[in-house]
Structure formats: C-alpha cells, structure tokens
Design brief:
Number of strands: 4
Order of helices and strands: EEHEE
Largest sheet: 4 strands, antiparallel
Shape: flat
Strand order of the largest sheet: 1-2-3-4
Number of helices: 1
Radius of gyration: 17 Å
Distance between the termini: 10 Å
Strand content: 35-45%
Length: 90
C-alpha cells in the first residue's frame, strides 16, 4: 500500500492552542512489523493487542499556543511552521 497524504490536528480550547501535522501515512498490516513497534506502555489500552498502527512521516508541523506566546504572523495569519525533509520508510 502506498503512503497517503494525511493531516492530523489537535486542539486544546482552554489553552487556545493547536498542533497540526501534515505528511504521509500508512497503515501497518504486517503483524511482525506491528510487534517490532509495540510498546509495553500500551498494554493497559490494548490488553488483547488488538490495535491499528499508523506510521506517519511528517512533512510540515504547525504550532500555536497563546499561553506560551507562540502565535505566528498577525499580518498574514500564518502559524509558526517547521518543514521536514523526510522519506517514507519501506
């Protein structure tokens, strides 16, 4: 399966903050690969290890946090951004 263009967004309303990640994502279907990525910290959330694993390779990250003074450009309304040079692993 080819990596798909994906966007993930997380917003915390009480802090007037958000993080947005754009990149390429793929669902891991190979059970052996899922085992290689397994973290014991997950066992309380997935006691039967029935979970979906998505690998995300970021291309761009945007962050806004009014509480921490990270607000971006007030003229162009653009958030602070990091652009990654990355490749999707096989």
């Amino acid at each position: 399966m080819h990596p798909a263009k994906s966007d993930f967004y997380y917003f915390v309303s009480e802090e007037h903050a958000h993080v947005a990640i754009s990149g390429r994502a793929r669902i891991v279907r190979d059970p052996r690969e899922k085992v290689r990525h397994w973290k014991d910290d997950w066992k309380d959330f997935y006691p039967d290890r029935n979970y979906l694993l998505i690998i995300v390779i970021p291309e761009k990250l945007e962050v806004v946090s009014v509480k921490h003074g990270i607000v971006g450009d007030s003229i162009r309304w653009t958030p602070p951004m990091v652009t990654f040079k990355s490749r999707m692993p096989r």
